[in-house]
Automatic annotation (TrEMBL):
InterPro entries: ALG2 (IPR027054), Glyco_trans_1 (IPR001296), Glyco_trans_4-like_N (IPR028098). It is an enzyme of class 2 (transferase). This is Alpha-1,3/1,6-mannosyltransferase ALG2. Keywords: Endoplasmic reticulum, Glycosyltransferase, Membrane, Transferase, Transmembrane, Transmembrane helix. Its EC number is 2.4.1.132, 2.4.1.257. CDD domains: GT4_ALG2-like. Pfam families: Glyco_transf_4 (PF13439), Glycos_transf_1 (PF00534). GO terms for cellular component: endoplasmic reticulum membrane. Pathway: Protein modification; protein glycosylation. The chain crosses the membrane at residues 454-475. It catalyses: an alpha-D-Man-(1->3)-beta-D-Man-(1->4)-beta-D-GlcNAc-(1->4)-alpha-D-GlcNAc-diphospho-di-trans,poly-cis-dolichol + GDP-alpha-D-mannose = an alpha-D-Man-(1->3)-[alpha-D-Man-(1->6)]-beta-D-Man-(1->4)-beta-D-GlcNAc-(1->4)-alpha-D-GlcNAc-diphospho-di-trans,poly-cis-dolichol + GDP + H(+); a beta-D-Man-(1->4)-beta-D-GlcNAc-(1->4)-alpha-D-GlcNAc-diphospho-di-trans,poly-cis-dolichol + GDP-alpha-D-mannose = an alpha-D-Man-(1->3)-beta-D-Man-(1->4)-beta-D-GlcNAc-(1->4)-alpha-D-GlcNAc-diphospho-di-trans,poly-cis-dolichol + GDP + H(+). SUPFAM superfamilies: UDP-Glycosyltransferase/glycogen phosphorylase (SSF53756).
Length: 485
């Protein structure tokens, strides 16, 4: 523990609903519970689309509205993300001083926080943005997208900026060994080896009593056997895999007529990917002759309104923007047979850990972070069959349907054994206490570094300062300028 409570500021671009946002919220809670003073700064926060701790006063959130949009006609997302963070940084530096800054996702602000704020910075890497933008990882290899010359030219300075600003962080953390390996391979100029601090979860949140008479919970729970998928409605999350495997399971086991699939996750009508993904899932359910309902604790967005159906007992439930209580109820329900985690090459994946904390078997892809969190003796884990916490399989409907056949056929004793080892593993490695301890060590490490020295490269400093000044001074003129497009 630090010798004294520290003042810590978190900088995160969008406090919505997602794995990165959940990590930031839990990290802030963990340090706050250790006695540190914590503030969260963000360029976007919608009380109707966020985690409860950022809405109910548990955490101190500062929403600084930027003069820049998220994109221009659906393009230039990363450019505007940098500008929005520079605006956030300019506002932040005029406020009270902090002992350390915690930055994740975007590193643009790091040099300014160090030099102008005279403060050490911890940077948490979920995954390098240049790899997310330029391709996809398949079994650890980058499969590059075919992009035109203009897109390549546009990304070139953005990728350079990410590497050179990340390099200025005093301590760099990564969410998994997988991410740390990729970071070292694709950021060759950065000498630091990221320290792994696994995302943690609030174990006690899954030990609470659930009010199953609550109308919101009644709307999503059922006495029927349930397969559960928790992910944002994004194409890369590949929820289609769960839907196709579910249909294949039902065709192989006609006696499982009462089993259902719940596809739940964050849905933002501002994002074209979310809209398209939901459309594709609904169309797939229709083509597979699966009855479905689409519900949301919030008002159904206009673009999703045509999906609203009212089958009395649907085989598939699309749950948009679930509440914390709904998620907890689904995870703790004795009728939930397994958690289906569909993303391949996921950087870490907090949802499998949440499921293990509730004693639910996990079915996940055999790549990325879940290979570190989920124990599967068939996958080569150095463990016995009795210590299994889940199944790791290739992302094909056939392989997943095979695993689901094993899962639905588990005896009561086998299910209890998996539940015991899953809960134990979640508590030992992935609790909020374990994460808070790792983060506390990191901020103490930065404090022990002493005075912030001047940046080594004067040229880099000049370029960044110019960018900072342009973003700060041009801010008021951007909206009317964009109105002309």
């Amino acid at each position: 523990m630090a010798t004294r409570p520290l003042r810590v500021a978190f900088i995160h671009p969008d406090l919505g609903i997602g794995g990165a946002e959940r990590l930031v919220v839990d990290a802030a809670l963990g340090l706050q519970n250790l006695g540190h003073t914590v503030d969260l700064y963000t360029s976007y926060h919608d009380p109707k689309h966020c985690f409860e701790e950022t809405r109910n006063g548990t955490l101190n959130v500062h929403y600084l509205v930027p003069p820049f949009p998220r994109s221009l006609n659906g393009k230039f997302h990363i450019l505007f993300a940098h500008l929005r963070q520079l605006h956030l940084t300019a506002c932040l530096l005029r406020r009270k001083a902090y002992d350390v800054y915690f930055v994740d996702q975007l590193s643009t602000c790091v040099p300014f926080l160090r030099l102008l704020g005279h403060t050490r910075v911890v940077f948490y890497c979920h995954f390098p943005d240049k790899l997310l933008a330029n391709g996809a990882f398949v079994e650890g290899n980058l499969v590059k997208k075919n992009v035109g010359f203009l897109k390549w030219l546009y990304r070139l300075p953005m990728d350079w900026l990410e590497e050179v600003t990340t390099r200025q962080a005093d301590v760099i953390l990564a969410n998994s060994k997988f991410t740390a390996r990729i970071f070292k391979s694709y950021f060759p100029s950065i000498g630091q080896t990221p320290q792994v601090v696994y995302p943690g979860i609030n174990i006690h949140a899954y030990e609470t009593n659930v009010d199953y008479s609550d109308p919101d919970i009644v709307a999503v729970t059922s006495s029927r056997p349930t397969l559960l998928s928790l992910n944002r409605f994004e194409g890369k999350k590949n929820a289609m895999l769960a839907l196709q495997a579910f249909a294949l399971l039902k065709s192989r086991r006609p006696d499982l007529s009462d089993i259902r699939l719940v596809l739940a996750g964050g849905y933002d009508p501002r994002l074209e990917d979310n809209v398209n993904t939901l459309n594709q899932l609904v169309q797939c359910a229709q083509s597979l002759s699966l009855s479905y309902n689409t519900i949301s604790p919030l008002l159904i967005p206009p673009d999703a309104a045509h999906h609203v159906t009212f089958f009395p007992d649907p085989q598939v439930l699309f749950l948009l923007n679930f509440t914390t209580s709904q998620r907890t109820a689904l995870l703790l329900s004795s009728n939930t047979l397994a958690l289906l985690y569909t993303p391949a090459n996921e950087h870490f994946g907090i949802v499998p850990v949440e499921a293990m904390a509730c004693g639910i078997p996990v079915l996940a892809c055999d790549s990325g972070g879940p290979t570190e969190s989920v124990l599967d003796p068939d996958f080569g884990a150095d463990t016995s069959k009795t210590e299994r916490t889940g199944w790791l399989r290739p992302p094909t409907a056939g392989a997943w349907a095979d695993a689901l056949l094993e899962i639905v056929s588990l005896s009561v004793a086998e299910r209890e054994t998996i539940s015991y080892h899953a809960k134990k593993r979640a508590r030992v490695l992935f609790s909020m206490d374990a994460m808070a301890s790792g983060l506390n060590d990191a901020i103490v490490q930065t404090m022990n570094m002493g005075r912030v020295e001047l940046l080594g490269s004067a040229g880099t400093l000049v370029v960044m300062l110019l960018g900072f000044l342009v973003a700060y001074l041009a801010g008021p003129f951007i909206p009317p300028l964009l109105d002309r497009f």
